[in-house]
Every structure is written in C-alpha cells, then in structure tokens.
Amino acid sequence: MTEVRPTAGASASLWERDEEVAAVARAVDRLCADRSSAGGLLVFRGEAGLGKTALLAETRRIAEARGCTVWSARGGETLRSVPFNVVRQLLQPALVSMLPEEAREYLGDWYDIAGPALGIADPGDRQADPQGVCDGLVAAVRRLARREWPLVLLIDDAHWADQETLHWLAALAERLDEMSVLVVVTRRPGEVSGASARHLDTVAAAADGPVTTLSALTPEATAGLTRATLGEHADAAFCREVWAVTAGNPYETVELLAKVRDSELQPVEARAGELRELNRSARGGGLVARLEELGIDATRFAWAAAILGTGISIDLVAKLATLKPDEARRCAELLRTARILTAPDPTTGRTGEGDLEFVHPLIATDVYNSIPDALRTAMHGIAARIVTDEGHGAAAAARHLLEVHPDDDEELVEQLREAAREHLAVGAPDAARRCLERALKEPPRPETHPHVLYELAEATFLTAPARTISQLRAALGMPGLDGDKRVDAVFRLSQALLHNDQLEEAVRTVEAEAARLQPGPARMRLQAVHFMWEGLHAGEATSPDRSRRLADLASTCTGRDNSERALLILRGFDALMHGENAEEVAELCDRALVNGRLAPGLGWTDTEWGIELLLMLANAYAFTDRLDRAETLYNEALRAYEMAGWSGGHLALAHAYVGLGHRRRGRLKDAEASLRESLRLAERVGRRLPLYWTATCNLVDTLLARGHVDEAWEVAERYGFAPPYPSTIVLPDPRSVRGRLLLAVGRTKDGVNELEAAEKAAAARGHHNPMLVPWAADLARALATEDPARAARLAVDVRRQAERFGTDTAIGEALRCAAALETGQRAVRLAAQAVTYLESSPCQYEHAAARIEYGIAARSTADLARGLDLAVSCGADGLAERARAALEADAGPG
C-alpha cells in the first residue's frame, strides 16, 4: 500500500483502497475516452463490512465528476425470491422517467418482451421465454447506453441478487464489448450455489482482469482511522485494541468508533478494555438489546421494516407494525438516531417508494433474524395481505406468502397460482416454480391438486424436462384432469419425454392414452401426436405397417380441423422419408393449409401441436423442390419467435432451418451465417439435444459444400458431431454427412464404414429418399475403384429411387453419381443429362457442380465458365477452385 490515509472527503471505509480506486479511475477514463469505447467490468469481492459499498460510492463520485450517468442497485438477502428485483432497481427509473410512447419507441421490438420484466409494460397472455426476456434486457442496456453515454452501472451485494437478474448480468458481461458501458459489481465470496453461482462465475470470468478480493485494514490503517475519528491524542495501545476487537473490518471499526465517540470514552489504554463490550452492542445480540432499549414500538417498527425489506415507507411499516402514524414517525426518528435506519442516500441513485433503508445490510439481516420465528411467519402473512390491498398484485405478495406455514388454506393456494401465472408472463419460471411448489405444501384440495401439478410442469418445462415428467405423471395419476386439459397434459408429457431423449417412452405414453379414448377429436389428436413422435424416431427398426395405418387414417381426412391437418402433414412427411412421389407429398401438405397459409391454432407460437409438426411441413416442401413455400415457412418461424422473444430452442431451430433453406437454394454463405447463429443459441440450451444436432449437422454439410473441409472437421470435433446419434431424426441424415466428412479428410475406410452404417439404419426405417439420406451416392463414389460392381449397383439404386421420388434435384443428383462412375462419351452423356435436370432445379449449388463436371468431361470452357460463375455466386469456394484449375489447364474448346 502506498498510502494509509484515504483522499480527502472519501469514506473512512476507503482506507487502504488505493489500488482499487485507481482501477476504478482507469476504467472510467477508458469509458469516457470515446463514444465507441468498449464496455468494462470490474468485480470486487470481500466479506461483510470490508468496504464494498463504500468503494461503489467512491466509484459514483469519480464517475459523476467525469460527467457520467450513474445508476445503481443492491441485492437483498430477503429479496432473492423476487424476480428481476435488482435489474428493475437499476434500469426502471430511467425508463419510467420517459413518456410511455417514448419508452416504447426507444426499446422498439424489445418493449413487449423486456418491458413486463422491468415493470413498465403489462405482460402478455402467454408464457414468456426467459432467454428472450434476458436478451431483451441486454438490448435495453445497449440502447440506454447510447442515449446516456457515458453510462456506469453499479451493483452492490450481487450475491443476494435474484436469479433472473444474475442471468441477465452474466449475459450482459459477455456482450460488454458491443456497448460502451462500465459495470462495477461487488459480492461476498460463497453465499450462493446452483445456477446463481454459475452466473456469478460467468461474470467473474468476463471481468477486466482478475477479481479483486478486498482485505481487512492493517493495524496501521486502523490506528490512522481511529485518530482521524477521535483525535490525534488516541494512544497506540487503544488503537491496537480497536484493531484486535474488529479484526480490521472497516464497517465494524467505523461503528465501534462512533460508539466510542457517542459514549465519550477516552481513547487511552486504561479504557481499551471497554471496547469489546461496546463492539458487541453493534451486532447480533447487542443489536437486539439496543432495540429493546428503544422500546417495544421501535422494535416492532424495525421488525416490520426488515420484513418489507424494500420500499420501506413509514405508512406501510405502520400498517404492518399496527402503529398509529405519529407513533410510527417517532419510531423512525429513534431508529435513525440509533444508526439502524436512515433516509435513502440520494447519491446512490436508487429510487423507490421507501422513506427509509437500513444503514447497512448487516443490520438488516440481524434485525430480521432477531424476530421470533412464529412472529416472523405471521408478519409475512400480514405483509402479503397489505401488499395485495395496496394493489401491487399477487406476484409482489408472493415472497411473503412463501414464508407462511402450510395451513390447508385454499385462498393462499389460489394466490400462489396467480402469482405463478404473473411470474411466467414476465419470463421468471423459477419464481413460478417456487410459488407452485409452496402451493403443493398447503396442500391444495383434491380437485385442485392435479391442476397445480400441471401448472408446475408448465413452469419447469423449459428448464427441467425430467422434473416436468414426474409432475405430469403425478397429475395424470389423480382424478381431476379431464377432457382437453388431460389431452394437453399427455401431449406435454410426451414433449418433455422427447426433449429428455426418451422418445420411445413418449410414443408409448401417447399410444396408451389414445387407446382409452372414444373416437372423436381428442383421440384423433393423440393419434396424430403418436404418429408424429414415431415419425421423428430414428431407432433401428419401425413397425412395418405404420405407414399403411397412417395412410389409411389420413385418407379419411379432408383438413376440416387441426387434428386432420396434422395427420395430412404427418402422412406427407412419412411419404417424403420413404421416397414416395414428390407431387403426392406436396399435395398432402397443401391440403393441410388454409388458403395457402397455416390454419389458426397451428401457428409457430401456438403450443397445442408444437414446433415439430410445422417443421415436418416446411421440410416436406424444402425437399420436394417447393423452396419458395418452405422458405416462407422458415422465415415466418424466425419472425414469430423473434417478435415473441423466444430466444431458446425454438429460435435456434428457426435459424437452423432458415440455414437449411439457404443451403438448398445454394446460398452457402448465408446458410453458414444462419447455422452458426443457430449453433450459438443451441449452446445456451444444451448439447446433445436434437436441435443441437440439427445445427451442427447442417453446418458441417454446408462447410463441405463450400469446400471448407478443415473448418467442417474443426466444427465436428468441437461440437461432438460423432456417434452416438440422437434418437430423433435429423435432416439431412447425420451418418451420411459424417461419412462424407470422413471421406473428405482422407479417412476413406472410416467414411465407408459410416456410410454403410447409414445404409443399415435407413433400411431398418424404410427411409429410401436419397435427398434426405444421401449415403448411397457418396458410398458409390468411394467404392468406384475398390469395388466397381457394387458402386454401379448403388448408382442404379440411387437413380431408381430418385426417379420414383421424381424431383429434378433428386434425378439430377442421381445422374451426377452415375456420370462419376463412367468414362468417355457415356460419362459425357450422363453429365449432360444431370445438367438438364439441375438447370430446372431451385438448388443452384448442385447445378453449379453438375455444370463444372460436365465442362470437365466434355472439355467445354463455356460450361466451365458458367459453372464457375454459379459456384462463385453460391459461395462454393472448392467448386470454384476446381473450375479455375480446369480452365487454366485449357481443357479444350467449348
């Protein structure tokens, strides 16, 4: 330490904090240097009382002296169950100060997504996606940072922040290089676990340099602080005892010295023995004794303030403590004089409804813990009623209801269910889960119990599929869920099983429930879901009569309701996978639409059927060369999820299939960009899930088409694109794509083995469409030298299946394969036929490849040049290089 004494005017708690203050000053200077400056993040860690709050106050002073806008917030030990509490403290005041239309214009598309979480907009009528809300809050900071530059955000006691705020803070920390804002965070070590701890670890990892751990004051600094407070005449022995009693804790030192001064204790060695007793009165039991000395009314007032925790207005405290207004004001003054409560410090920048706050979080904790258990529980119950009567809603009262002992209270169950609905609507499923789990302890009445379990499953569906499964099974095992609600619960259970990679169990669950229903819409819906999950299953075998049963059922459908439309889509997708006539596939899909559009109730954000069915529809169009219709559906999905703020798995899949659409068109650069974004989003949801495979498989396929073999291999290695494969179908077939990759990197034997495994799996499933499971053409090329007879048989099979399917792309690709196995004029004729078909196809990459292959076979510089132009426009660098090499070799006149 270069100095013992802090700078003039600084808090006493800043003694020996020169390095930390210097780091703050440097960060503020970097922020103020330029509007385009990258953001910064400082994290200070220290035990209670080591001066973290004082360091933030000094940060505010430095930043405001440089002309910065400074906003701050603080976590609270009793407020961790309140979702978005800390981020609301931080951002809400600036947005509330705007006119509503100004805030809406400023936040743009994010207003309806992040606004409810910030408390500036009413929530919608459906469950908000937590990741979308988090992204919206990050976007809000980005926009506010441009408006308020230079902007500094201070977050005190982050270890006590709610989980939703910590999720946002972790996301913000990783995006600070995109916005000009300085974030300074303080926290205690430990204190948290689970998701909150992971979020704080992410914040620490993103900090500018290592996290700074604050240390206690040295004896020298304690002596300097003692003499600065009590006078230079304080003798050395007395100063040493101050340090020994407080262990150099700055907060305890300041509090002890204040008591020494108030008691007029002389700072001499003879009186040093009295310091320990004085120190005990500042914390724990000593604080309780001080409260008792102030009288029962003041004690009740302090207890009520600790129960409320935030928004400590004298009127609200008076209601909770059952005090008259005059008595409440007198108690508030007594507690201010006793340094227990204080008026909010305007320099903190925090605004709220409260007239008071605790002098220090340590005091708030000690007061709260001093309340007798039974009384504390009762006061929380009263506080819940007061908060509700004040019009703050069930969600605001929920944190108090969570503390009330179970008492078979149906009204409390309904309040908690309403609070859970409010939490889900703003994107806080964990808060909703806590409310519903508490409601189950009440417990609910028998007729209500399965409905609470169902709602709990809704709250955990996005974050904990395994937990959702047990909750829905329990709900379905009770009487009370009937009709459409029961069908919804069975569908949700099957979805959770699917997302938990238990697809076979999902199929059995739906099949069993459908069997117990009478013929009608509900049974037909479950039959459709049953076929849907079977159709997505990528297991080693399938029921040989499944397609016939599905075809028979779909043949009775006219598309008059969504169950019939679903069956038509499923029949179309099944026909696609089996390589039946593409015209018939498209006709089935067309019948599932209403005037060429998705029917009401079958939209991308409707939950009755889920995303899987609509992706089957879009993919059926994509692989039957109806790319206009497929891309319309893919882009509709992307827009719908972005507008709804769904930033999790749904958005990841939308980007993946937009990428697939680009890949089919031959827009390979656009495909790569979309697929990389999909993979980024999929990483946040979790590896090894079906959506993760979809993004990875299509990215590898696209990079191979571009000729970027090394990049394709690097992606495959980094993201685990290797066996074992998922239980759900991925398009295109991952075994076929990995086999192609292995061939491309020179691992021919491994590639052949992988393609043969793809052959076996496809045969077991009856999947004979060479466009979706393209193993045969690559295997034929790989075996052309080693086993030409088998290669020729494979090429014949590919052509037969392609002609059965009937699209220009499928037939053209089959002809390309056949041409690659021939020489001389036969190779030229086959290559020319491939060009003819692929010229009529919407798939420009395949057209470019065929044109170049024909140009080489026929020694046609004109076709090579045209193929080169097509390859360049597609972003197919490998094809383009092949065409250039052939042209440079002067293959001959065209």
TrEMBL record:
Gene3D superfamilies: Tetratricopeptide repeat domain. Pfam families: AAA_16 (PF13191). Keywords: ATP-binding, Nucleotide-binding. Transmembrane segments: none annotated. Residues 16-184 form the Orc1-like AAA ATPase domain. GO terms for molecular function: adenylate cyclase activity; ATP binding. This is Orc1-like AAA ATPase domain-containing protein.
